[in-house]
Design goal:
There is one protein chain. It is built from 5 helices and 2 strands, in the order E-H-H-H-H-H-E. It is mostly helical and 156 residues long. The chain has one domain (2-155). Strands 1-2 form a two-stranded antiparallel sheet. Helix 3 (99-122) packs antiparallel against helix 4 (127-144). The mean pLDDT is 96.
């Protein structure tokens, strides 16, 4: 199965921009916490972690860097260049869609869950949590738009 040669719509470009934004922020946030797992580099006090299983930000930093930084970078490159990578279809539950479309949905869900767990464990402490919750929802909504879904639909 291959993708049709279609012109990218504004919504497709907007999805790419949203995912690139998440990629950059995930990489920088992850690196910032990896540099200083005590959180002072990013001005995140350790008392935020008092109701969590973590004694410092090392594990959250790794999740942030890899799952919300490297993973979206991989998706963004795939979205931009329409990469065909066979092994990506192993966890692509929508076999009639290009893997990047499905992975975009996964990212929207993961980001929304990340913020949900963050608020559940450390509470609501900054408006940026709302921004990232809305970003996760926006990624889902834009990916589910008919013209975006159709752009990434595979044909025989």
């Amino acid at each position: 199965m291959v993708m049709n040669k279609k012109k990218k719509t504004f919504a497709v470009y907007f999805l790419i921009v949203l995912i690139v934004f998440q990629s950059i922020s995930g990489l920088f946030g992850g690196v910032g916490l990896l540099i200083d797992p005590n959180g002072s580099y990013l001005k995140m006090p350790l008392f935020f972690l008092r109701n969590t299983p973590f004694k410092d930000y090392l594990i959250p930093a790794l999740v942030l860097f890899f799952i919300l930084g490297v993973y979206p970078t991989f998706i963004a490159v795939g979205l931009i260049f329409n990469l065909k990578i066979k092994w990506t279809n192993i966890i692509n539950i929508y076999k009639d869609q290009h893997w990047v479309w499905t992975y975009s949905l996964y990212l929207g869900i993961i980001l929304s869950l990340w913020i949900d767990f963050q608020v559940m464990f450390i509470g609501y402490w900054h408006f940026i949590q709302t921004i990232y919750a809305l970003l996760g929802i926006a990624i889902l909504i834009i990916a589910l738009l008919p013209n975006v879904k159709n752009y990434y639909k595979l044909t025989d």
